[in-house]
Amino acid sequence: MKWVGRCGECQAWGTVEELGAPQIARVSAGPVSAPALPIPQVRAEAAAARPSGVGELDRVLGGGIVPGAVLLLAGEPGVGKSTLLLEVSAKAAHHGQRTLYVTGEESAAQVRLRAERTGALEESLFLAAEVDLSAVLGHIETVQPDLLVIDSIQTIASSDIDGVAGGVTQVRAVTAALVRVAKERHLPTLLVGHVTKDGSIAGPRALEHIVDVVLAFEGDRNTRLRLLRAVKNRFGPVDEIGCFDLSDGGIVEVADPTGLFLSRHTQPMSGTCVTVTLEGRRPLLAEVQALVTPSPMSSPRRAVSGIDSQRLAMLLAVLQRRVGLAVQACDVYAATVGGASLRGPSSDLAAAVAVASSITNVPVPEGTVAIGEVGLAGELRPVPDIGQRLSEAARLGFTRAVIPSHRHAPSAALPSIEGMTLVECTDLHRALTVLGIRHEAPGRGEPGVPADLQIV
Q1: 261-439 maps to which CATH number?
Q2: What is the pTM of this model?
Q3: Domain boundaries in the chain?
Q4: Other Cβ atoms within 10 Å of 223 Cβ, number
Q5: Which DSSP string corresponds to 293-335?
Q6: For 270, which DSSP code?
Q7: CB of 396 within 8 A of CB of 258?
Q8: Residue 445 has what pLDDT?
Q9: Is 129 in contact with 94 (CB distance < 8 Å)?
Q10: 48-255 topology per CATH
Q11: CA–CA separation, 188 vs 134, rounded Å?
Q12: Better pLDDT: 400 or 1
C-alpha cells in the first residue's frame, strides 16, 4: 500500500480515501442434527457388519457390509463385476432384504436374462435401468431398499451438473449425492467403477476418498479364477483376498483354491518346484515351472508368466555367478500353474530351484516345498509368517520343506509341524545340494578365475 494524493480517474486532489481490508464473512451457529456425546456413550450396534450371504466377500470386508457404507468395486471389462454384484443382490433378496439394482449399461431385459442363467431371480430384487441421478433417487424413494447396487457409477449423470457422464465433474457429483443418501438412510450401497488401461480406477482420485471401501476384482481372461482384494477398507482389514470361480452358470466361491495352482504328475518331472505364497493372510501353494534350453540366437530369450521378469533375471545372474550353472547362453521359460501371480520375494528359492532342476534334468524330490528369498550374494533370507506357510503345506500332504536358516533371525524359533521335516539352508548352493540337484561345489578351474564362475 502506498500514499496517493491525486485520483487517477478525475485528477482531483484529496479525494482518495483509504478503505479497510475486506471483511471475512462470518458463519453463525446453526442447529445440530444430534448432540455431541462422549465416545463411550455412542452406540455401535447401528454400524455392526451384516453378512452379505457371499462368504468370500464377507471375508474380504471383515465380516460383512456395514449399514450406510459405500463400496466401490473396480475391475477390467469382462472380469465379472456385474455377475458378482448380481449374486450379492440375489443373496440379500433371498434373505428378505429389499434390494434395488440400477443398471446404466444394460437394459433391464438383458440383466434379467443373466439373472435367469445364474439363478438370481428373487421377488425382493427390484431392477431399474436408469442413467439420470434424479430418476435413481426417485427409485430409492419408491422402493425403500435395504441394499442399493449401481452398475456403473460412470454411466449415471445429473442434469444440474455440467459435463458428460463419466467425466470428472459428473462422477464426483453423482458419487457425493449417493454417499449422502446412503449415510442419511443407513443404506449400504455398492458401486461398480471402470478402470483405465493401466488398471487404475477411472475418474478423479477423489472418488476413492469419498467412498468407504474400495475393492479390486482381478483375474486372467484365460482362466476362471477371480481374486477380490480390498484396496481401502474403513471397517476391516486390507490384507485379505476372496477367491471365486467364474463360469457360464454364474460365480461360485472357492474356499480352498490351492489345488488350482498345482499340477499332478504321474512321475517326477524336472524343472518344477512348489512354494507357498501369501495372498493377504491366506497361504496358497503354487507350482513354478521352468524350461531351459540352449539358445541358437546371440541374445537368449527370457519369457515369464506369473513371475516378475526382473526378479527372474536377478535369479539367473545369481545362478550363473554364485552357483556356477551355465544359463547365459540358454533360453529360459518360467511360468506358474493355473495363472497364479507370485508377487513377493518368498518364491525366489522355488524359481531358482526350478531353473536349476531344468538345467541338470534332476527332479525335485516328491513332497518337497521351497520357501525363501534369494540375495545377490546367493544367501537365503527368512520370509514372514513361515509357520503359517509350513502348516498349509503340511495340511496338503507335503513332508519336507527347504527354508532359510533362522538361527540368526530376530524372530522366534521355528514351530514344530507334525509330519514335516524342515531343512534349513544358509545359501542357494546348499539348498540345491540338499535337493540332490548339485552334489559338488563349483570346481576350481583356471588360475585367476573365481571358483564361483566355473561352469560345472
Answers
A1: 3.30.230.10
A2: 0.76
A3: 48-255, 261-439
A4: 13
A5: EE-SSSS--EEEESB-HHHHHHHHHHIIIII----TTEEEEEE
A6: T
A7: yes
A8: 35
A9: no
A10: Rossmann fold (3.40.50)
A11: 19
A12: 400
